[in-house]
Design brief:
Length: 113
């Protein structure tokens, strides 16, 4: 999921309006994998993961090194999947807002005097 998230940051211009939904798909998949979000049907998770893997593959239907067209198929796949799971995505976004701001913390051992 981290690779897809990083790629979305660098390919934002090529994705245009799809970028926000694609980033939400990455966050939703991450929350499902970590077990924090459990309301996503398995069929939707499979579609999302398949779309993200397609997005990350540089040699897909239209290779990413082709100017303008290289990311067009990636954007189309992400757009199609986001619309296919729109109800699930909207439910996740409402859940995410309800979670409030989250801070990732790591336990730190402190020396005992």
């Amino acid at each position: 999921m981290a690779a897809a998230s990083a790629a979305l940051q660098t390919r934002g211009g090529a994705l245009g309006a799809v970028r926000r939904d694609a980033q939400a798909l990455v966050r939703m998949a991450r929350e499902v994998v970590t077990g924090r979000y459990r309301a996503l049907p398995k069929r939707s998770l499979v579609a999302i993961v398949a779309a993200l893997l397609y997005f990350l593959d540089p040699l897909d239907l239209l290779p990413d090194f082709l100017p303008l067209f290289g990311f067009a198929d990636d954007a189309a796949v992400l757009f199609w999947v986001a619309n296919r799971v729109r109800k699930d995505l909207d439910t996740f976004l409402r859940w995410e807002v309800g979670q409030g701001p989250l801070i990732d913390v790591e336990p730190v051992a402190t020396p005992i005097d």
